[in-house]
């Protein structure tokens, strides 16, 4: 089945990328409740599979909200982010303020007549129940995701830099095709076709509302699309390089004697292009020290710098990639 989105000139003019901590929170929780489909995150899943939100006796509304049908989450739980610098507290505050009519509509769309018992109070008093849900989600974030967030965020930021450069250099058709095999953009027709959907074929116009693209670690391997009001249409897609997300520094130990431990670590992380600041965030090293080591790797021909606007990204060269072949 396919979903066809009609994108006008105004929609393409408003195409942008953003990071959504609240989406990552929800998708990670979904991964813990349905781990079989998310084996790429096994190191993280194994560490957090007994989080109190999952193991608490009885119902937990935040857990039940993510346990609906495959591919489908209540839209109000993850508002469309409108900035690459979106803050978790801002997103959760927007979730907390969701109108009661939208909450009831989304619960009906996801669960139909099979609403979990633990969510029944939400139909009666949606706004009151959302206070408890947001508190549960915030507690889960601090236990399970906050420690890993700098690493995840760096990967997401790197993906955004790469995609924006791809759009500029190769155009929207090539950029969308590179994001996911289920995406196909026809520039002449002004349509974006999304394949392998579970619902019946449909066609929707974005009507000049624009489109936000959100890279996600825990969306892997699927696309998630939301076009319903009152949100700006959004597509969440698997971030580039997610397979390296949970690699430990010891994975580069074989190269350490030849390159030095720090340079071996940085070269290993450059499976996905990254800036000096991103690498500093992921390693805990000072940006100046990272810069010095990157210049040494560049002089050895193992990495190369690529400028995208004001951002300089480093990536392995063919010579650098050969060390991992």
Q: First CA to last CA: what distance?
A: 38 Å
Strand order of the largest sheet: 3-4-1-5
Main sheet record: 4 strands, mixed
User: What spatial form do the alpha-carbon principal axes imply?
Assistant: globular
What fraction strand? 5-15%
Number of domains: 2
What is the H/E order?
Answer: EHEHHHHHHHHHHEEEEEEHHHHEEH
State mean pLDDT (0 to 100 scale): 85
Helix/strand structural class: alpha/beta
Work out the helix count.
Answer: 16
Low-confidence stretches: none
**Helix content percent band:** 40-55%
Got a strand count? Answer: 10
Integer-rounded radius of gyration: 21 Å
Descriptive overview:
The protein has about 325 residues and is an alpha/beta fold. It folds into two domains: about 1-195 and about 205-245, no CATH class; about 245-320, Arc Repressor Mutant, subunit A. The chain has 16 helices and ten strands. The chain has a four-stranded mixed β-sheet, with helices on one face. It has a four-stranded mixed β-sheet with strand order 2-6-8-7. A hairpin with a 7-residue loop joins strand 7 (about 225) and strand 8. Helix 6 (about 90-95) runs antiparallel to helix 9 (about 125-145) and helix 10 runs antiparallel to helix 11 (about 170-180). The radius of gyration is 21 Å and the shape is globular.
């Amino acid at each position: 089945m396919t979903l066809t989105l009609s994108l006008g000139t105004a929609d393409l003019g408003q195409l942008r990328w953003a990071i959504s901590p609240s989406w990552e929170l929800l998708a990670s929780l979904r991964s813990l409740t349905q781990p079989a489909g998310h084996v790429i995150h096994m190191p993280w899943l194994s560490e957090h599979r007994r989080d109190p939100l999952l193991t608490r006796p009885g119902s937990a509304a935040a857990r039940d909200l993510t346990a609906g049908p495959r591919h489908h989450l209540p839209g109000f739980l993850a508002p469309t982010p409108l900035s690459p610098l979106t803050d978790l507290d801002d997103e959760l505050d927007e979730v907390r303020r969701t109108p009661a009519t939208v909450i009831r509509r989304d619960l009906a769309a996801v669960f139909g007549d099979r609403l979990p018992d633990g969510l029944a109070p939400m139909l009666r008093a949606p706004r009151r129940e959302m206070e408890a849900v947001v508190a549960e989600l915030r507690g889960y974030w601090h236990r399970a995701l906050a420690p890993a967030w700098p690493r995840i965020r760096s990967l997401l930021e790197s993906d955004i830099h790469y995609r924006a450069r791809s759009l500029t250099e190769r155009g929207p058709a090539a950029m969308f095709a590179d994001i996911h095999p289920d995406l196909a953009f026809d520039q002449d027709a002004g349509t974006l076709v999304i394949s392998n959907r579970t619902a019946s074929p449909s066609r929707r116009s974005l009507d000049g509302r624009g489109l936000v693209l959100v890279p996600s670690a825990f969306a892997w391997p699927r696309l998630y699309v939301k076009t319903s009001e009152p949100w700006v249409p959004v597509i969440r897609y698997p971030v580039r390089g997610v397979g390296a997300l949970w690699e430990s520094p010891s994975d580069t130990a074989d190269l350490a004697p030849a390159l030095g431990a720090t340079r071996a670590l940085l070269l290993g992380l450059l499976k996905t292009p990254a800036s000096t600041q991103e690498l500093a965030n992921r390693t805990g090293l000072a940006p100046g020290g990272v810069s010095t080591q990157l210049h040494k790797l560049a002089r050895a021909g193992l990495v190369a710098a690529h400028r995208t606007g004001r951002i300089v990204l480093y990536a392995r060269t063919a010579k650098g990639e050969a060390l991992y072949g």
